[in-house]
TrEMBL record:
It comes from Caldilinea aerophila. SUPFAM superfamilies: PRTase-like (SSF53271). The keyword Protease does not apply. InterPro entries: PRTase-like, PRTase_dom, Pur/Pyrimidine_PRTase, Xanthine_PRibTrfase. Residues 36-159 form the Phosphoribosyltransferase domain. It is an enzyme of class 2 (transferase). Its EC number is 2.4.2.22. GO terms for molecular function: xanthine phosphoribosyltransferase activity. It comes from the Bacteria. This is Xanthine phosphoribosyltransferase. PANTHER family: HYPOXANTHINE/GUANINE PHOSPHORIBOSYLTRANSFERASE, XANTHINE PHOSPHORIBOSYLTRANSFERASE.
Length: 194
């Protein structure tokens, strides 16, 4: 997605340790027009790949919510986000798994209520980053726990040098990224369209 690639080139910052700072338009402050275009781009690309009948879009809180919601709107499907802490309102059973957090350090628990993710669902997984693939693998595990069908994975930004796509190959679903980061060295971020 050219607008996204250009924005990363202008505003993205390499913080070292594999961390790409894009919080001026994705992770903290959001650009609504860019976010809406991301949702349309994901919907268009998955449709081109033959992915259809999506009944749920899933992501992890917090940074995946905006692109997942934009995608859900474009597809006309509800969006569910995996919580990192069980709220007191979640009184029944729940699905849970753990995922390491690169930006927060440590491990987080991801939780989804069975009220909102069912065996009959056809699920599209959307997140802000694909790096090592561990968060996405954890979300895919939640989808599997409830017996739903994972139909595709969409990532706003993929850091190709971290090997996440290869680690997710066993899921046998299309993986779509809107921008590819090939390297980050010093102030230089090599980014391109997929």
């Amino acid at each position: 997605m050219q607008a996204l690639v250009e924005r990363i080139r202008r505003e993205g910052r390499n913080l070292g340790g594999g961390i790409l700072k894009v919080d001026s338009f994705i992770n903290h402050q959001l650009d609504p027009q860019l976010t809406a275009e991301m949702g349309r781009a994901f919907a268009r690309r998955f449709t081109q790949l033959g992915v259809s009948g999506i009944t749920k879009v899933i992501t992890a809180e917090v940074s995946g919510i905006a692109p997942a919601l934009a995608t859900a709107i474009a597809l006309g499907a509800p969006m569910v986000y995996a919580r990192k802490k069980r709220p007191i309102t979640m009184t029944a059973g729940y699905y849970s798994t753990q995922a390491p957090s690169h930006t927060k350090g440590g491990v987080v628990e991801l939780i989804v209520s069975p009220e909102y993710l069912r065996p009959s669902d056809r699920v599209l997984l959307i997140d802000d980053f694909l790096a090592t693939g561990q968060t996405i693998a954890a979300l895919a595990e939640l989808v599997a726990q409830c017996g739903a069908t994972l139909c595709g994975i969409g990532c706003v930004i993929e850091k190709t040098f971290e090997g996440g796509r290869q680690r997710l190959a066993h899921l046998n679903v299309p993986i779509v990224s809107l921008a590819l980061i090939e390297s980050m060295e010093g102030d230089h971020i090599l980014v391109r369209n997929p």
